[in-house]
Amino acid sequence: MPRWHRPSMLGRARAHLGLLVLIGLVVMLATLLTSAIAPLTERTSDRAIAADVRDAGLQGAVVATVSRPYDDGERIRDPLAAAELRDSAESAQRAMPDRLAGVVRPGVTSLTSPSMHLLDAGPGRYLRLAYLTAPRHDPAVTYTSGGPPEPSVPAAKATVEVAVKTDPWPVQVALPREAADALDLKVGDRVEAEDEQHRTATIVISGIFVAGDPDDHVWAAVPELLHPIVSRSDQLTSVSAAAIVSTDSLPDFQLALPFDDLTTRVVFSPQPAQVRWKQTERLMQAIVSLKTSGSRGSSEISWDSLLDRILLDSRATVSAAQGQATVLIIGLLAGVTLVLVLAADLLVRRRSDSLMLMRERGASLTGIFTELVAESVVVALVGSALGTLVTWLVVGDVGWRWSLPVLVVASLAGPVLATVRAARAADDRRVLANRSARLAVARARRARRLLVEGVVLAVAVLTYVALRQRGVVGEGDLTASSAPTWFAIVGGLLLVRVLPPASRLVLARARRVLGAVPLVVAARSSQSAGRALPLLVVAVTVAQLTTAIALVATEQHGQVAGALQSVGGDAAWETAPDRSVSSTAAKVSTSPGVRAAAAARVVEGFGLASGSSSATVRLVIVDSAAYQKVLAASPLPDAPQLARLHRKAGGKVPALLLGGDRDLRDDLQVRWEDTPVPLRVVGVAPRVGDTTEPVLVIDRAAFEAAGVVADPGTVWAVGPGAAAALKAAAGTAGTVDVLTDVAEARRTAPLASGLVRLAVASALLLLMFAALGVALAAAAEAPIRAESLGRLRSLGLGRLDVRRVLLGELVSPVLVGAVAGVVLGAGSALLMFGSLSLELITGQSATPDLVVPWWASMTAVVLVGSATLIAIAEADRVRRLPLAALLRGGDQR
Asked: Among 69, 381, 524, 726, which has the minimal tally of Cβ within 10 Å of its Cβ?
């Protein structure tokens, strides 16, 4: 091991303390951001998974269906029915894997009947009976009249088994107040009901209640208990509601209805806050294992859940966001690396004389390298420690993965460059006198440079191919995620190749121009144009900054466009289908601030069939003339083909179809309420909503002329007063979606907001590093410029001309590099954003349109302004230097 000379090491550090502190600050700032990425990414992913599970609601529940004992025909009233249901729930709880049981609430056990038709007041009234219980409590209710359901036998027989011969057997139930009002039932009413097989049951209303806590998850097992479904048309008003059965009347419930009408389920609703990103894959495996175990028929419990699909879709979205974050992080690391190398190059330039002196005194290259490594490691560790400390204080946790490259580059860049310079300074090889030999050496040097550039180009091509083939998937896919960065590096190298011949061409033209300033600027620029590192710093950092700005702008614009497509206008009202919705839409269209409104019936997952094909489509039955006005008054794409829906189509109803295979358009028909309606496709439908399914649009008047009734249940409105008008018209019926609220919800979603914060932070750091790169590049050539300008001053160059020369020499390469960086960033976004799965973050069904804000070019203005300030300051310093000293010995600083 070489021996270190500590006094020399301390002396070098003191002599260049400012540059060392600057390198440490760069490391600290880079570490401050990169060390926070891992914990913040995990937290954001957890919040995104939890939000998706929360939004899924009951769809994400894990449902266990317990098979009931076979009915042997003996009618026995069992007083232990509630205990048997609790045993079934405990069996389901025990069968659930621990990893899944830890993220769901205790199961809500239900015994439910199908929706039965009430026979006392004509068609259109349906009632579903349900018994609900949870491990810790039954649903809390407050009775406004009557009381809880009681046994249908005397109190003395309620606790013993009783053989029953009466058929039908009555069962007492309690109705929610909204259901009682809708069904026009009161306490004491005795009604007959029948199931789909026309088997009757006797229902006695014992009480009317309101839910004590409507937000209690127990009610989610039977949503009709809180929200009865009411739909109206010219011919019929339909009401579908539910009633509860108490523990006392549960044995009567089992006797009152046929055995095969009752279903026992245990619903385990997920706890969103307990679902973590890292455990989602194991959760999906556990759910799939449960569902397959039930399908094999080896258990009395069958399982069903959509939670695995919800987690799969959420994982895809989180993975896409992590991949986009990786693109930003790699771009930031590239900028940090180039700035650190440029700072190390400036430090080595200032230490050039001392390095030569060390070699002349016998220092080995290994000794020089180890001494400088010790110094740079201390600087890098101090900077990294400070950045990590700040991150730990602010975030509460740190990650090391993305900080290690910064630490390695900061530790090795300076020592490697210094060792290479020291080796060249002490190179005792003779200079070749033979011209052909010198040409051979020059060709070998050019070949090595071409080899390096070829390797960079090959890596860039490979990363681009990987990006196009598989996109960016998660933060671990460094190959595809680095494609935009390699694109910028290749563009920077191309700029380095083009700039020297371009500067020589400018110099040739400058020789024909009168005046010393253009000639001097062109001459100095042609000499410094060969320096690749400063140009790469400016071009690559500005390119990555532009990419970050374009990513944020594109996603935010896409979120607004996706929200508009999802809502269908400035506001939309969703309610139960009713004939009165049409008049409401006409009234809303004349409200102040509303430009247009249209009523429609939208049916998701509607089965469509033709002579040789079938598909599931989104069916839209709309007033086509009013809807055309809505599209014309909104930023949504116009659909002139809607006018074709008014033309007769040979006895068939004209329709517009978007998507689906070609065979679907032949002999097309729909079955609406058991009535077949033949269709003829006369054009391409507009995209209604953000669905990826085919869209079928039919004019409502033409559709109803075929002998069917399609009452609307959706109203779209456009205009600044659309939201207020729809809310006033809707009252408490249905829900009103407002465009601004939906867009804001998408913007503030965990993944979208996290990406914006990361992009803004990386853009600010890249801008700072780009400005620092301009200053470091100017400082590296400052002594040579001061010497040449001093001699020009002695030859009569005026003070103003000196400033002009410095402005031309310093500003022109910065302007070229910054403009090239903006172009490279925009080009990278144009070529690669289609493979970044941005639509998963914006919530659109297609890739969002690229948006590069005009103010992204302000980066060039900032850097040019920085170079201008540096030139003015350097001109003042040059003016204060004594001419005599400059002429005798050059720059004396």
From this structure: 69
Structure tokens belonging to residue 532: 């690749």
- φ, ψ of residue 692 to 5 degrees: the values are -100, -5
DSSP string, 39-78: HHHHHHHHHHHHHHHHHHGGGG-EEEEEPPPP--S--EE-
Measured between its terminal Cα atoms, the distance across the chain in Å is 37
Q: Residue 315 corresponds to which tokens in the numbers above?
A: 């994982």
Per-residue pLDDT of 2-11, as tens digits, reads 667 677 778 7
With a cut of 70, list the residues of the chain below it in pLDDT. 1-3, 5, 69-74, 121-122, 156, 158, 164, 231-236, 294-299, 426-433, 475-476, 512-516, 524-530, 648-650, 794-796, 881-893
The confidence score (pLDDT) of residue 515 equals 64
Nearest C-alpha neighbor of 19 from the set 438, 339, 269, 277: 339
Separation of alpha carbons 649 and 642, rounded Å: 14
Residue 528 phi, psi (nearest 5): -90, -5
Measured from the Cβ of residue 558, the count of other Cβ atoms closer than 10 Å reads: 24
Closest CA to 715 of 822, 808, 620: 620
Q: What is the pLDDT of residues 513-533, one digit of tens each?
A: 656 677 777 776 666 666 778
- Burial track 439-466 (b if 16+ CB lie within 10 A, e otherwise): eeeeeeeeeeeeeeeeeeeebbeebbeb
Cis omega (within 30 of 0) for bond into 79:
no
Residue 2 is predicted with a pLDDT of 63
